[in-house]
Design a protein that fits this description.
13 helices; globular; alpha+beta
């Protein structure tokens, strides 16, 4: 494995950073958060038309750039540094891979080129608070998290002209503004229960969407109500939805980890700049040994998180036939969850230290320090928590079973 980035990857990082520095400063970020969509359409157009980010990891046959998850993660690292609000995560990281993996050729040919061009945004709607479970990050996603055939969740029933969905979904990233929803629903009743994915178009009869107040305003969320809504089955119904969701979840976790590492690095940079300028007792507080030790600990944590995120992104973008197999399971080892846990912890620590070391100003709404802390907390609520990410990774790798067998042997 060559850990160095290619010239093309370095150019992607540089280009995205330059654009965000020009178009996504603190004032622009706050202005975008206050809009109805929760992001700046002009910035999204620039990211799509000038840089091609929505189609970065899509095949060239569908209008994409043909890169891997690694390149998409590097772009999102810069997005995380700026706390940029955009549909990139919901569209390119969560939804597009599912359309590519499960969609029929007709569905791919219709939807993926529009996504790659930035003309169509997509949101993944998972019932309840089960997004991290559905993506296979905190547990086995083959359960009935989509509804279980009972009240709650989303139910799908077959009708003469296709499918109809009924139910409600909370916490849908960019669900209020997306032109297309990928909805996970329970089908088959009690006799043959299974979870399927459906496409719901914008403006469908019975579809009600409303933006919700979220802790992290830079990640706009919506409540989606489905009242006997006509829907189109994603794929032919014979594919393994759970495996596709788990593969998407691992790649998404790697991208999120890289994004969180970028945000943590920027939070640390801002704090270091501040302690070099702020003076107490006639000297900069950054010269005090206690402050140096605290920031040194944060630096080590951020760099470790970045290394783990880069490795997870590389692993997710590598041919599955070349990746390592979990011993005795026959399943490809997934490391995205572990990298995400480490990155979220690093971001939370860097943001918390930043708030503390900024003193009184760090607690104010006018300062940006709290936005980084909210990003860490909001992502953990959606894709964690950290201890469950680590616990499931340990369970999959058989650490607990190995420890038990060694204890018995002793």
């Amino acid at each position: 494995m060559d850990a160095r980035f290619t010239a093309e990857q370095d150019e992607i990082r540089r280009t995205v950073r330059e654009l965000l520095l020009k178009r996504c400063g603190p004032e622009e970020v706050r202005a975008a958060m206050g809009t109805g969509a929760g992001y700046d359409p002009a910035l999204w157009s620039a990211l799509a038309e000038q840089l091609g980010l929505p189609g970065l990891a899509l095949p060239e046959a569908y209008g994409g750039v043909g890169c891997t998850v690694t390149e998409l993660a590097l772009a999102c690292e810069e997005s995380g540094r700026a706390l940029a609000s955009s549909p990139l995560l919901a569209t390119a990281v969560l939804a597009a891979p599912l359309l590519l993996a499960l969609g029929t050729e007709t569905q791919r040919a219709e939807l993926l080129p529009r996504i790659a061009a930035g003309a169509l945004t997509v949101a993944l709607a998972v019932p309840g608070t089960a997004l991290s479970l559905a993506l296979g990050l905190v547990g086995d996603n083959r359960g009935n998290w989509a509804g279980g055939g009972r009240a709650g969740g989303v139910q799908a029933r077959r009708v003469e002209d296709g499918w109809r969905l009924y139910g409600q979904v909370e916490q849908v990233l960019d669900g209020h503004s997306a032109g297309l929803l990928v909805v996970a629903a329970h089908a088959g009743g009690f006799a043959r229960p299974r979870t399927l994915l459906f496409l719901v178009r914008e403006g469908a009869a019975g579809l009600v969407r409303a933006r919700q107040t979220s802790l992290d305003v830079s990640r706009p969320q919506a409540r989606v109500q489905l009242r006997d809504v006509p829907a189109e089955l994603l794929g032919d119904g014979h594919v393994d939805v759970a495996d596709a969701l788990a593969a998407t979840g691992d790649a998404a976790a790697a991208v999120l980890a890289t994004e969180a590492a970028g945000a943590a690095d920027r939070a640390l940079e801002r704090t270091v700049d501040h302690v070099r300028q702020r003076e107490q007792f006639g000297r900069a507080i950054g010269s005090f040994q206690a402050v140096k030790h605290r920031l040194a600990d944060v630096y080590v944590q951020v760099q470790a998180a970045r290394s783990a995120a880069y490795y997870a992104a590389w692993a997710a973008g590598t041919d599955p036939e070349r990746t390592e197999q979990t011993e005795g399971s026959g399943q490809t080892e997934r490391v995205g969850g572990l990298a995400l846990a480490q990155a979220l912890e690093a971001l939370r620590t860097a943001a918390a230290e930043g708030i503390q070391l900024h003193g009184g100003i760090g607690f104010t709404w006018e300062h940006e320090a709290h936005l980084y802390f909210k990003r860490a907390t909001g992502d953990e609520l959606l894709f964690g928590p950290v201890h469950r990410l680590r616990a499931y990774a340990a369970e999959r790798s058989g650490i607990f079973a190995l420890a038990g067998s060694e204890e018995v042997a002793v």
